[in-house]
Each structure stands twice: as structure tokens, then as C-alpha cells.
């Protein structure tokens, strides 16, 4: 059974409270629960991680490599636009990954439209809300 890591970056622990007009009313726990239900149907195993700390996300990506994870779905949140370290961890481990964003980062402030990960990701899903995570998970059902 393939194992996929779901990695969420800073402030995503505040989903459901933080700017619901932008990010929706679902909590991160709600999203993880719906992903777990879908993963069961797709015969995939999931592990979840959320951190507000860049170094913890980098260390987790390294651990995914050690554990031979099949793929990563990552919402790097604000680190999308700033983190060379997360980019380098993903490139260094060569774990295939899909970048997901709840909001359309290209329709927001200009600084949000630049991603340090999109050009090395399998794909990017942006602006589809929590369904974007499900779309990404279905990629591994091939």
C-alpha cells in the first residue's frame, strides 16, 4: 500500500477561524478526516503533519525520505513564497509532490503569486478549496 504524506504549513492550524471568506469554514481536522475517508477507498495510507516552523517541515520531509514515502501533498502556506529550504528538501529527497493551495494565490496580493515550489512540483492545485487536496490524492490512485 502506498503511503502519502500530507504536509501543511503555517497558520493552517487556524482553518475555520482565520479569514473564512478566503480559506473557507472547514478546519484542518475536517480536511484530514475527508482525506482519510478517500484514502481508504483508494487503498492509500496517509500521514499528516502541520507546522508553523520551517525547520520542522524540512525535517519531516527528510523523515519521509527515510521512511520511503511514495509522495507528498504539501500546502506550504506562507512558505510558498519564501522557503528555499523547503524547496531544497523536496529536491534533495526527490519525493514526488503536489502543491495545493485553498485560495487562488494568483488572484491575491502580487507577492503571493510567486511560488518557490511550483516549477519542481508534479502539479499545482490552487483556488479549489479543500477539494484541491482530494484532487491531489487521486493522483496516486493510478
UniProtKB/TrEMBL annotation:
Residues the record marks as active site: 23, 101
GO molecular function ontology, one term from the record: 3-dehydroquinate dehydratase activity
Enzyme Commission (EC) number: 4.2.1.10
Catalysed conversion reaction: 3-dehydroquinate = 3-dehydroshikimate + H2O
UniProt record, GO biological process: amino acid biosynthetic process; aromatic amino acid family biosynthetic process; chorismate biosynthetic process; quinate catabolic process
Record keyword Signal present: no
Any Pfam family matching the protein: DHquinase_II
Family: Belongs to the type-II 3-dehydroquinase family.
Protein function: Catalyzes a trans-dehydration via an enolate intermediate.
Subunit structure, as described in the record: Homododecamer.
Record's protein name: 3-dehydroquinate dehydratase
Species classification: Bacteria, Pseudomonadati, Pseudomonadota, Gammaproteobacteria, Lysobacterales
